């Protein structure tokens, strides 16, 4: 079964809205009809097995184009809609895309080159109207190992890497997430994550599958609008990366005092949210389930989750593998290590990518004997719960001593005035590397007074070699469109 038919298997006949609120409501019937019509047109115009770019914020245009591309048997390449011209040109050349779906207001910002056709939301109504009921004419009999999408991520050399995900990958990860989150058609998700990001796409996939609904909020910077959407539209779920929860808990004056009678759960992925924020949330909202999750684009989206029942007992853990995923901690030779010992976290399951697009070398380094090598250092405790220590390349050596930045960040974030902390290593003639802390505070506290307070707190919690030697103070947390910190 292709992924389009999978997500609409039980929901295509629903008489309800999929996108709720805002200026662009969208019903299941409209979405199913329009994306099928677009898929039929794409097959006639471009055939199958081509790569088609999609450049747009979250919108009806994005969703319809995305699903139409997948149904047509072509591969969708969703891009950050603020992508640099140079990276766009590189991806166009690599993918040999004959077509780009681009939101009208963004078209003037980019040069797509000769021979590349560009369509916007203004073109879709004409295509849909001309095709009519075209579902029967579609060839959608392709296998699950057909390439469904290529998601480009930042490569270690600065050149984007294309993660190849198949229809089978999307089906496997969607089924797992629906299972452990216990999603149903009654669920309504407030979406602040962009769909060009695998975490955001997983929200689209899972709620289509169960017949739920989405509320699109593209303005997280205005905290009041998010809080209002959660209440007004009776959202049952909210998904965010660490910065979203940090800002809501420490920047918003009203969030923790607001009652959300319909919100049954929140999910957090996209990096480690320090325990101080998790404790803060579950103390403020004991009735809302908090799911800590871990994943990578190379795993379609998700690899593990911590069931809320294990908080706060297992706080700091990424939990256990999601249904259908095996996790192991191994040494450099690939041999499993004993519980409690650090090693690299590896994963195996139906959601693991097919490889990196046109990059056999990187693929062979990352996929070995069917296992995804995540590059994350971790250990497993005696109860089978996994804990991430840090990225292999993030470990800092100060005077020959190995230091994980996460441990220090966790301590500094316990200072009430601190919204965010980033620890990195800087060159030092004596120590090899020294520690630098970049601090974002939530008020206008005198910088020197704040620094002294942090140092005093650290001295009681950390060994002397783990206390930062240099401090940089900032007023605001700088994040990307996915909500991840810009470092």
Automatic annotation (TrEMBL):
Oxidoreductase found in the keyword field: no
One Pfam family here: AMP-binding_C
Superkingdom of the source species: Bacteria
Ranges where the AMP-dependent synthetase/ligase domain occurs: 15-357
Keyword Transmembrane helix: no
Domain AMP-binding enzyme C-terminal: 407-484
Keywords annotated in UniProt: Ligase
Family per similarity comment: Belongs to the ATP-dependent AMP-binding enzyme family.
Protein name: AMP-binding protein
Origin species: Robiginitalea marina
């Amino acid at each position: 079964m292709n992924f389009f038919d999978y997500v609409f298997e039980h929901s295509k006949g629903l008489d309800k809205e999929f996108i709720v609120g805002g200026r662009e409501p969208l019903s299941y019937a409209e979405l199913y009809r329009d994306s099928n019509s677009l898929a039929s047109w794409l097959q006639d115009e471009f055939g199958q097995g081509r790569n088609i770019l999609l450049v747009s914020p979250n919108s009806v245009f994005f969703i319809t184009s995305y699903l139409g591309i997948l149904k047509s048997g072509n591969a969708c390449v969703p891009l950050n809609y603020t992508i640099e011209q140079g990276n766009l040109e590189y991806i166009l050349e690599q993918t040999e895309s004959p077509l780009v779906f681009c939101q009208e207001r963004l078209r003037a910002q980019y040069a797509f080159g000769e021979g590349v056709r560009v369509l916007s939301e203004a073109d879709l109504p004409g295509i849909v109207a001309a095709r009519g009921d075209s579902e029967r004419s579609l060839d959608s009999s392709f296998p699950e190992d057909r390439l469904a999408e290529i998601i480009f991520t930042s490569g270690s050399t600065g050149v984007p890497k294309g993660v190849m995900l198949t229809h089978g990958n999307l089906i496997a990860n969607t089924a797992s997430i629906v299972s452990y989150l216990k999603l149903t058609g009654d669920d309504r998700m407030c979406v602040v994550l962009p769909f060009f990001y695998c975490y955001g796409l997983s929200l689209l996939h899972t709620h289509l599958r169960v017949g739920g609904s989405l509320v699109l909020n593209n303005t997280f910077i205005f905290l009041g609008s998010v809080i209002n959407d959660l209440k007004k539209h009776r959202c049952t779920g909210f998904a965010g990366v660490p910065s979203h929860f940090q800002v809501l808990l420490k920047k918003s004056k009203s969030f923790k005092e607001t009652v959300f009678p319909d919100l049954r759960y929140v999910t957090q992925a996209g990096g480690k949210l320090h325990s101080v924020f998790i404790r803060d949330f579950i103390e403020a909202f004991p009735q809302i389930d908090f799911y800590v999750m871990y994943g990578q684009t190379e795993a379609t989206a998700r690899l593990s989750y911590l069931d809320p029942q294990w908080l706060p007992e297992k706080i700091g853990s990424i939990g256990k593998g999601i249904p259908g995923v095996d996790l192991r901690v191994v040494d450099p030779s690939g041999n499993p290590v004993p519980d409690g010992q650090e090693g690299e976290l590896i994963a195996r399951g139906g959601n693991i990518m097919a490889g990196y697009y046109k990059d056999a070398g990187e693929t062979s380094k990352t996929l070995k004997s069917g296992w995804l090598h995540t590059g994350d250092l971790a250990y497993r405790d005696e109860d089978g719960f996994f804990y991430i220590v840090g990225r292999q390349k993030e470990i800092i050596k100060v005077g020959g001593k190995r230091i994980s930045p996460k441990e220090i960040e966790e301590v500094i974030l316990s200072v009430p005035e601190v919204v965010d902390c980033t620890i990195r290593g800087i060159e030092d003639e004596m120590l090899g590397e020294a520690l630098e802390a970049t601090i974002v505070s939530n008020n206008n506290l005198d910088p020197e007074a704040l620094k002294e307070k942090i140092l005093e707190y650290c001295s009681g919690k950390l060994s002397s070699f783990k206390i930062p030697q240099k401090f940089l103070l900032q007023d605001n947390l700088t994040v990307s469109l996915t909500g991840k910190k810009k470092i």
